Amino acid sequence: MLTKVQLEHLEKRLLQERAKALRALGLFDAMTKADREAGDTDFSAYTDHMADQGTEAQEREKAALFATKEGRYLYRIEEALRRLYSDPDNFGRCHGTGKMIAFERLDALPHARYSIEHKKELEARGE
């Protein structure tokens, strides 16, 4: 079982990671808003070169992928906070083995649900 000090540390880490992910998603929102506003100008009647259009489409696709990845990461952070707040006595317990996850792993990856050993087993099986 984790100590109160360790749990407080992990809560702080999770909140920091959540803030970082929210900032990243906010940046994505600002970029897409700027793209939409840029398309509403008088210059939008002029077509860009096909290569420019392809580059812009690729950049929008990368930004959407980034937002999706950040969105999934934010979800995992939120789930970890829910686990921490709802059942602090069992926070940090591996969902596969039931054993405690090493504090060092949780410090590095505060939303981890599996011990490093169990995670390696899952990856070896292709899960």
What does it look like?
The chain has 127 residues and is an all-alpha fold. The protein has a single domain (4-124), classed as DksA, coiled-coil domain (Four Helix Bundle (Hemerythrin (Met), subunit A), Up-down Bundle), CATH 1.20.120. Helices cover 69% and strands 0% of the residues. The protein has helices spanning 4-39, 50-86, 103-108, 116-124. Helix 1 packs antiparallel against helix 2. It is flat and about 55 Å long. The model has no long low-confidence stretch (mean pLDDT 82).
Question: What would a concise description of this structure say?
Answer:
By secondary structure, the protein is mainly alpha-helical.
| CATH homologous superfamily assignment | DksA, coiled-coil domain
Number of strands: 0
Query: pLDDT average, as an integer?
Result: 82
**Relative strand content:** under 5%
Distance between the ends: 27 Å
Question: Would you state the CATH class?
Answer: Mainly Alpha
Number of domains: 1
* Uncertain regions spanning at least 5 consecutive residues: none
Give me some keywords for this one.
single chain; 127 residues; mainly alpha; Four Helix Bundle (Hemerythrin (Met), subunit A); 4 helices; flat
Write the layout of secondary structure elements.
Blueprint: H1 4-39, H2 50-86, H3 103-108, H4 116-124
Helix pairs in contact: 1-2
